[in-house]
Amino acid sequence: MNRNIRAAALACATIVSFAAPALADTELKIYISSQHQPNIWRKAIDQYEAKTPGVKVTIETGGNTSEAQAQYLNTVMSAKDPSLDVLILDVIRPAQFAAAGWTSDVEGKDLSSYLPAYAEANTVGGKTVALPAFADAQFLYYRKDLLDKYGIQPPKSWDELKTAAKTITDGEKNPNLQGLSFQGKAIEGAVCTFLLPYWSQGKALTNNGRLSFDHDAAVKSLALWKSFADDGTAKKNIAEVATDDTRKEFQAGNVVFAVNWSYAWAQSQGAESAVAGKVGVARLPAMAGGESATCLGGWEWGVSAFSAHQDEAKKLVAYLSSPEVSKFMAINASLLPTYADLYKDGDVTKAAPWFADALQVVETAKPRPVTPRYNEVSETIRTTVNAVLAGVSTPEEGASQIESRLKRILR
Ligand code: GLC
């Protein structure tokens, strides 16, 4: 080989050897709900990329509500589309996704280190079908500054809340100030809206998967929410309010009390918030004579069964579900940890002091019914809550509609 040819061959080899690692990069695409701070997850993923050469991760977001996201994922997964490798799933969905064959099992992780409710939600037929991303429950957010100004304690019952809201809104004389914001739109969150006062009366919706419906408790639940709209505690068009609307209105300083999930805290303390330093978070009020109840929320990481990168996707999910990431997301995005000891972690409670008392709330939060037909259960409840708040059905009619439809679904 003459010298020139050798040099040229060497140059080629050099190019090839530089190009090889780039060609070998595994590109993972991960789906994250847009409501749950994808920009902060991005930072956690940057740290993963930095210590995992050869893996690049891109984020896709979509839909601002749980069921909008589910609808999108249903389309992608029904088409067996391989473009998404990792999916974040609302706690109500891993069982459904696993049953449909849309997620792969993610064995090899000891689930006993997580809060028991999430170990349970992610285990189907003895298999681990997803790993916990973050915990969640609904809380009562309130304007601490306004309650202090009027010498009012956070309300323990919904009646107390009504009185407190009236005192404050009458006193403030600000036409934009709402007493209470909650979710009345026909979204997944409205299922929990219905269940809060229902459960608070000591009633269960299902017993061993069968319907155990208390008609009277259901009427009272629907009537309570409707009364807030009718007496001006909530705004007239509460039937159009979704979770992130509540978050935005509260953050803008236009709401005294709000029912919301943990993610709303970080943004209420952020640079764009009108209420930073003025927010308190407490357990939700109870029905008279009942106990405070809340819905178990949370999101889970699943690996798409159609991903061409099963091993890499599972490794990424194990990382995203680790104590390290749970702590990072608790501090930076106020997403509740899935590990019990992090609720007392000094860095976490510095960022969200109320997390110190939140573990007990999460541990006693009630799960929505677990059934392969959950989508129908959800649709029934959320559309009825919405119809009652919009004045289309009375609470009595709403309770009967829920009862007769659920009877057919949960047989
Ligand atoms: C929160 C909860 C989730 C729930 C949703 C309803 O994101 O974590 O479980 O379904 O709100 O809007």
TrEMBL record:
Extent of the signal sequence: 1-24
InterPro entries according to UniProt: Bact_solute-bd_prot1, SBP
Localization, UniProt: Periplasm
Gene3D superfamilies listed in its UniProt record: Periplasmic binding protein-like II
CC per GO annotation: periplasmic space
Predominant place of localization: periplasm
One Pfam family cited in the UniProt record for this chain: SBP_bac_1
Keywords for this protein: Periplasm, Plasmid, Signal, Transport
Family: Belongs to the bacterial solute-binding protein 1 family.
Protein name: ABC transporter substrate-binding protein
